[in-house]
Write a structure and sequence with these properties.
Layout lengths: L2 E4 L2 E4 H13 L7 H8 L6 H11 L17 H16 L3 E4 L5 E5 L9 E6 L12 H17 L7 E6 L7 H6 L18 H8 L18 E7 L4 H4 L4 E7 L1 E10 L3 E2 L11 H18 L5 E3 L3 E4 L5 E2 L2 E10 L2 H22 L2 E10 L2 E2 L2 H13 L4 E6 L4 H5 L5 E6 L15 H21 L2
Parallel strand pairs: 5-6, 5-7, 7-18, 8-17
Antiparallel strand pairs: 1-2, 3-4, 4-6, 8-16, 8-18, 9-14, 9-15, 10-13, 11-14, 12-14
The structure holds zinc ion.
Zinc ion binds next to loops.
Amino acid sequence: MDTLIITGGTLDRRHFNKLAAIGLAGIFPRRQDRFNFFSDQNLEVDSRRLNRRMNQLARFGANSAGGIDRVAFSDANIEALDWISGLLVESGFTPSIDFAGNMIAHKPGSEPHRSPIMLGSHVDSVPGGGNYDGQVGSMGALEVATTLADAGHTTRHPLEIAVFTNEEAGKTGSRALAGELEEFELDIPTASGFTIGEGLRRLGGNPDRLDEVRRREGSVEAFLELHIEQGGVLYEDEIDVGVVEGIVGIMRWDVIVDGKTNHAGTTPMDRRADAMVAAARFVDLVYTTARGMPGRQVATVGRLEAEPGAPNVIPGRVTMTLEIRDLSMEGIEKVYDEIGQSVGRIEEQTETQFAFERFYTSRAAPTEPRIREIIENSAQSLGLSSRRMPSGAGHDAQSIALFAPVGMIFVPSVDGISHAPEEFTEPQDITNGVNVLLRTLLEIDRAGT
Ligand SMILES: [Zn+2]
């Protein structure tokens, strides 16, 4: 491919020529900014262009099921990034690939000393994924960029549009910006056939220099991510926009129940220490506890294995997982403690013993309260209904929240389906979300966070 190197990344020469052309056009702004200040707060995006670009993006990695196989580091992933970078150049941005493979496009603001406002999402998919997860936020950020360019509106803050690396299998790019990416992860194989480290090089990154992409606290004014809900709440309740209160924290444990292995035919019912019976009571306990407490916590036993695992043997050991999610880590611990209080009773009743080993923690990431308000007001100004809600799924915004105030906007997923070719969001809902994104950006630019 015919490429030029630009600060650690590559750009197609065709796009570079466009960049040069835009540079010249910039000398003759289409409109005078000062006349537009008040009307620009009411700018709206071009719905047809936005949804046309959604369809164009869907061609990269399209599969026969109507979805996409655009896993991180695949050719389709790289081609999609190249296509987007060309469109960003046309909107007056300068894209480059950072060492973590993130495509980040910059545009100066009228007050250069200010920290940038960043918007974006991801375009990589799970294998056999759909056309909306990550893509709505990426095309939304691009549409905001084009709308501002068309209106000749220059923001006070510099703008950054980010398409993050490998969201689906480890949030590699956004976690690198937060300094959270660990050395061992570079050797992890991915669905592309490349390890994460190899994949970063394919995108134009450099796994040896990840320290250099790390952002300091306070270096970004705000980060905004538009995303599909991936659940069915907004769709079922016919709400236009979700105002995300935060990305839930997750804790997972292995739960080991020890009883006594014995003959299933000769051991009377009153002389058993059946680990499976104890496990069954525990599964019910987890469900009723999480459901019975006030709040929106969720708890799940997702895997269960009995040993020795034969039809004619009383299980002497069961190993299962417990997962609890909540918007606050304290909330998670409250559920865990509540469950723990009843485990003793099950142990007594079944003559078994429980042990808990925590093996995974993902910290909750609350969004910035002030940005939630701005998102709500923006929705209202557009005549859209909104609702505050947690995000049960992880997102890039979760990593960015470690060093910057973040805001997240959800749009409805039809039937709540995601990570499948049937994933769908109505074009009008996408437009609504992008309009809210634009107005939120303009308000943060005007008033700060
Ligand atoms: Zn996503």
